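# nightly structure sweep
# worker-07 picked up a monomer target from the shared queue
# config: single-sequence mode, recycle default, output format = structure tokens
# input follows
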Amino acid sequence: MNSPIVDEQEILLAFEELGMEPEMIEQFIESFRLGQRDKGRRILTSYRFKLLSDVHAKQDKLYCMDFLIRKLKSNKALEW
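# output follows
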């Protein structure tokens, strides 16, 4: 089974939607054009790691918020 061909425009749009920095997009496109798969993979993996780190940071904030809400409820500071 043949995999669909992805063109540069589709890649650009996807990366922009993901919020990838223009410099990183340019680096990936250059590696894509030159067939440098390992370099492209490293760029994508690096950005994935950044996104995951962002998720973990937000998750930590949610945990703190949940703790604060539980603490306030137990002290009757919040009537829910």
